[in-house]
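Consortium newsletter contribution from the modelling node. Members have asked for a concrete example of what our holo predictions look like. Here is one, prepared for the guanosine-5'-diphosphate complex that several groups have been discussing at recent meetings.
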Amino acid sequence: MVLAELGGRISRALQQMSNATVIDEDVLKECLNEISRALFSADVQFKMVQNMQANIKKIVNLEELAAGHNKRRIIQEAVFNELCNMLDPGKPAFVPKKGKPNVIMFVGLQGSGKTTTCTKYAYYYQKKGWKPALVCADTFRAGAFDQLKQNATKAKIPFYGSYTETDPVKIAQEGVDTFKKESCDLIIVDTSGRHKQEAALFEEMRQVAEVTKPDLVIFVMDSSIGQAAFDQAQAFKQSAAVGAVIVTKMDGHAKGGGALSAVAATKSPIIFLGTGEHMDEFEVFEVKPFVSRLLG
Ligand code: GDP
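And here is the predicted structure:
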């Protein structure tokens, strides 16, 4: 089930609960069960759904709520807050500081939209008056540098990479050093997303981080992968200090489970959403407006 349907189904469950003449344990239970079924269909992890149910039951204690309390509103608010909590790790992401050479490293599996997102991120800040630059430290995938170069050229953003150098660590270091000298204030390092072996990919990521000392590592994930995102995000988190998440392809078959799992696995907030293939199809992510929109 895709994200838009998830929101509709949760809203309908809340509406049905609201329509009941008396809100008793059975009505509340049926409402929460329907919300849980909706979350399972959106591929949200069992444990997260269980926690959500338990938290809501703790807040909405029908026996303790005196008559006259607006039970409908209290239940609706509790569901809203729980959905927000699932998307909010409770600590904000690093915010780049203007006038300093902020180094931002992007990690994620090949195909997740990492290279596209690097340019979108650079373009977003460029429009706000920053001086971004892009470094292609993916020497594994043929064509990675060309893709970054093409995107960067289109957006008039300086870029660094090599057709001949095969050591991504060397390129990353040289690129970051070059742009620091040029007083760029947002130096974005795109890394490889695939290798012959997973271990090699993570070791390379670790080495790139060691030489570039990123202020922020952003994990990019495709929203259509559902709860498989949990293991993926955790594996990346173990090798790099992931501090933020960007969820891509929200315009496609986005599942709620992916975004929620990525936040849970990395304990990092989502900062942007990718909503299309174009450079400006990129939105700042804010939990409350997102959940409000989801529930319609
Ligand atoms: P990478 O291998 O992770 O660097 O992924 P790419 O940046 O090459 O993206 C893979 C494909 O996903 C490309 O065809 C992109 O145009 C597409 N893509 C990336 N972000 C989005 C998005 O937010 N929405 C849509 N519809 N496509 C996207």
